[in-house]
Design a protein that fits this description.
heterodimer, A: 332 residues, mainly alpha, 2 domains, 2 strands, B: 168 residues, alpha+beta, Alpha-Beta Plaits, 3-stranded antiparallel beta sheet, two-stranded antiparallel ribbon
């Protein structure tokens, strides 16, 4: 099929179809996870959760929420920094979508082609660079809103950034070291006989904790901090812009779960028959874990996050890296 | 000088173990709750069980054998009512004498305190709090109940048994 078309047309089709697929995947996930998270939260608190709005068990809650948000007035604060303020939701959303570029969704059969948008050679580097971009959007939202709550939330996000970003990179480095490649596809291939979570359980813990911090999810949701600073950087947003933040949040949650599933849980490898279903099962198990953690643990203070990042996560990630390096040296 | 070792259960390895343990225990608790049935009652669709003795609205007891009210129109309930919302007028017989039966028994429920004092004042056991609580109306006039309506409410309330007008 590729040969029958002129290259520019083929490239155009690919350039339209692939982002559409990513955006559709994110949109579908956001719609279902809005409902899913509320449902899990309700069950943990022994409530029933949304079940009235539509469909079996209220599955269409996300659509109802979406319609409501689209119909709402788009309020801009009077003294907001117009451009910075209105661009911020997109700047938060785009990295969440860009992450999907290098993540394999699975392979068709044991040795079939890999379902990945683009198998970059330096994919892990790209992941780290793009994912931390979200903080810029958060800062834009906080600064542009010209509101004390927004600014406080955004400042917390920025001050938290380095304390989790360094352990995050070091934890991933252990995986890269063991696989000997920066490509996510190669990393998954290296886990055919054994998932990296088994030798590098410590690394997985550090990675997951740092990921939660990067997602601004509980117990690191001090950036949003509903009980103290309204909703932090998103305070002054309403309607469709606010729903962009929502989409970005759930897109990033799925993206980071997909990253963890690929880097540590063996991607499409699994018992019986490797394939797409294993990636999805692992991803949604990790999404459930994140939701479970959110409804169990209370929020850290900013100084506790710093403590945790520098005094716990960083030494643990260094330990993991050293152990992995030593093991590689012994094996070689 | 004797050195007292500093014991702080929140730092060091012991503190780390405590933190890990409490996180695991906490997640165990939330997961167990996650698996349990919700305790929510879908209220308008499902009935809410009321405890015995719930005070909904004062209603007139009926002798289920004769179909007559226990009320003798003595008016003690009207006197005992702190907000004065009960109007009792006795029936007048053909000889012009007052009969021991109410002709009018009006309860302006929109001002009722649901205090139970009328029930306690009644010497003939002819009043009882029915377990009807879904009595919302758009206008207060709709909450003025007459004699037969109050008897009807008592009959429809929970656990009416035919035993000489007595509920068991």
């Amino acid at each position: 099929m590729q040969a029958a078309l002129p290259p520019w047309l083929w490239n155009l089709i690919v350039a339209v179809v692939k982002p559409t697929l990513i955006l559709a995947f994110i949109g579908l996930n956001a719609l279902l996870l809005i409902w899913g998270e509320r449902k899990v939260a309700a069950r943990i608190q022994r409530r029933r959760g949304p079940e009235v709005v539509g469909g079996p068990w209220g599955v269409l809650q996300g659509i109802a929420d979406g319609v409501k948000l689209f119909a709402k007035e788009d309020v801009m604060p009077a003294r907001a920094d117009r451009w910075v303020w209105s661009l911020a939701p997109s700047v938060v959303f785009v990295p969440a979508a860009m992450v999907f570029l290098v993540l394999p969704f699975g392979a068709l059969g044991p040795s079939g082609p890999v379902l990945v948008m683009r198998d970059l050679e330096n994919a892990v580097l790209y992941l780290m660079a793009v994912a931390s971009f979200t903080a810029l959007g958060i800062w834009m939202a906080g600064w542009g809103s010209n509101s004390k709550y927004s600014l406080l939330g955004a400042m917390r996000a920025i001050s938290m950034l380095i304390s989790y970003e360094v352990p995050l990179v070091l934890a991933v480095l252990g995986v890269v070291l063991a696989a000997g490649s920066l490509s996510v596809v190669d990393i998954v291939r290296a886990q055919e006989s054994r998932w990296f979570i088994i030798p590098q359980f410590l690394g997985f813990l550090v990675f997951y904790a740092a990921t939660l911090a990067e997602l601004n999810r509980t117990p690191f949701d001090l950036v949003l901090g509903e009980s103290e600073i309204v909703v932090g950087y998103a305070t002054e947003y309403s309607g469709i812009r606010w729903s962009m933040f929502f989409f970005a949040e759930y897109g990033a949650l799925v993206a980071s779960s997909l990253v963890a599933a690929n880097l540590f849980l063996g991607g499409w490898h699994g018992p019986f028959y490797p394939g797409v279903h294993w990636v999805l099962i692992k991803t949604y198990a990790l999404v459930f874990l994140a939701i479970w953690i959110r409804w169990t643990l209370p929020r850290f203070r900013i100084d506790q996050v710093m403590d945790f990042g520098w005094k716990v996560l960083l030494p643990l990630s260094l330990l993991n890296l050293t152990a992995t390096g030593a093991w590689m040296a012994v094996k070689a | 000088m004797v050195r007292v070792p500093r014991v702080d259960s929140r730092s060091g390895l012991r503190g780390a173990w405590r933190a890990v343990k409490s996180i695991l225990v906490g997640h165990g608790i939330t997961f167990r709750e996650f698996l349990k049935e919700p305790i929510t009652i879908r209220y308008p669709e499902e009935p809410v069980p009321y405890p015995p003795g719930v005070r909904g609205i004062p209603s007139l007891k009926v002798n289920m054998e004769t179909g007559e009210l226990n009320c003798t129109a003595c008016g003690l309930c009207a006197r005992s009512c702190p907000v004065g919302i009960i109007t009792v007028e006795p029936m007048v017989g053909p000889d012009g004498k007052r009969m021991q039966y109410p002709a009018v028994y009006r309860l302006e429920f929109h001002r009722c305190l649901v205090c139970n004092l009328c029930v306690e004042a009644c010497p003939f056991d002819s009043l009882e709090m029915a377990d009807m609580v879904e009595l919302s109306q758009y206008h207060p006039e709709a909450l003025v109940f007459e004699r037969d309506q109050l008897a009807e409410i008592w009959k429809r309330s929970r656990a009416v048994r035919i035993a000489g007008g007595q509920k068991i």
